[in-house]
Amino acid sequence: MSTFRSLLLTKSDGADGAKFNANVTDIPIADLPTDGDVVVRIEYSTLNYKDGLAIANKSPVVRKWPMVAGIDGAGVVESSADPAWKVGDKVILNGWGVGENHWGCLATHAKLKGDWLVRLPAALTTKQAMAIGTAGYTAMLCCLALERHGVNKSHGEILVTGASGGVGSVAISILSSWGYDVIASTGKLNESEYLKSLGAKEVMDRATLSAAGKPLQKERWAGVVDSVGSHTLVNAVAQTKYRGVVAACGLAQGADFAATVMPFILRGVVLAGVDSVYQPMATRVDAWARLASDLDRAKLDAITTTIKLGDAIAAADDVLAAKIRGRLVVDVNA
Asked: DSSP alpha helices (H): ranges in the chain?
């Protein structure tokens, strides 16, 4: 094979300013980056919110041009100069600046650093790994943050914001399987039955959290998984119980955080920031092991839609417009 298929992002300067293009195209195998040491034949990728921003050119996600999109990939090692990996090994890639500073995995092949790769758990297929993807992996990191800070099911309800999205859907499934009472906040009340099927005890309108509120409000939440940011995160923190924990991982509503210190100094609330890109390898391996053992496969199937690589460009706009329920898996070979 002399070429590989990819979703390529380009930007060039012209008389009318920078011109951006996103196209599915064939690229010579010889053009794969030289700084990687493992060539992976990608079987499945996915579309996360960050992918949507990059593909739609809505935010400066991409740092180098041209760029093959895709911050996630799962596939089989085709060649390796890293002794830790051999031909035929099944691997997962999340983050590490792939799709931003280094060519990504919305492609049939990717050349990656062995130090970035996680061995695919035996209980998962590559497609299931991408149904989880960075969104689901981030959801598990948030759930583990609650667990690590001592939040248990006897402490009370857990709020999950952005509930019908990828992070929210997986977080609801995980937390409900752990025995927590989960309250789902969403702008899509027509998805209430779907969210309850994942394990939500109750579904609430996101409008109750999305406007500016008082700095300290009635205590309700023992813990929060928030992928929304802005006023929603501020209100969630203001409603968190004494010594409760809020895991923050996203900015779907906005990056602003116009809060006060009151919940932190009067109630001892913990705000735990969750980053998915540069997590230490031990944390990654633990998170993927817990996903493999704790995530209900039937629920994972229920939140997953599979599309072809050629459909990914149009789907990026839908991801940004919050029109997608759950997770989008991209079959890069279809």
From this structure: 49-55, 126-148, 166-177, 192-198, 230-238, 262-266, 281-294, 297-302, 312-320
Residue 43 has pLDDT above 70, yes or no: yes
What is the CATH number assigned to the segment(s) 134-273?
Answer: 3.40.50.720
Please check whether the two domains, 3-120+303-331 and 134-273, share a CATH topology: no
Domain 3-120+303-331 listed as CATH 3.30.450.40:
no
Place of tokens 């689901």: 136
Domain layout of the chain by residue ranges: 3-120+303-331, 134-273
Query: To the nearest 5 percent, what fractions of the chain are helix, strand and coil?
Result: 35, 30, 35
CB 243 within 8 A of CB 269: yes
What pLDDT does 12 receive?
85
Q: Which two tokens stand for residue 281?
A: 């390898």
Distance CA 100, CA 313 (A): 17
* pLDDT for 16: 66
Q: List the beta bridge partners of residue 100.
A: none
Q: What is the pLDDT of residues 100-130, one digit of tens each?
A: 999 999 999 999 999 999 999 999 999 999 9
